[in-house]
């Protein structure tokens, strides 16, 4: 039998024990991770039986050299390895994108070229398009900024009518999903989704 995955939505900066629990999902909760958390506008957390198994953040601490006005970065998404390929990433990505669009910002995400999983996801999605490439000041690695094709900035720049006007404070639905493989030995460390 497959377990129930709950999705919790928060519109405030995670603090205290909640921040510690969310930080534990990452391999390296470094300065940049905490900077994102300090500027979080929206956090979606995936839980199974009270344990956090995934997190995704929308923040406005954008350091990437984007030309997009009012960029809202969909950054810091992690899913525990034992919970991958269950659609958790898709639910969190949809929630974050819906929130950013509803706030009237320009949703962006920044993907390192070595992150093949993310490249596969964004590269095959019609909802995202590359804006530009640059070298990270922190790692020196090539990065690409992806911008939402549904954002008013992207659409008007191509002569298209915006899809949906901004709807600040839109309440997003809670999602429930049922399934997860059992944990196996050595599957207790999260890596970027």
From TrEMBL:
Every N-acetyltransferase domain range: 31-123
A Gene Ontology molecular function term of the record: acyltransferase activity, transferring groups other than amino-acyl groups
Alphabetized InterPro entries for the sequence: Acyl_CoA_acyltransferase (IPR016181), GNAT_dom (IPR000182)
Name this protein carries in UniProt: N-acetyltransferase domain-containing protein
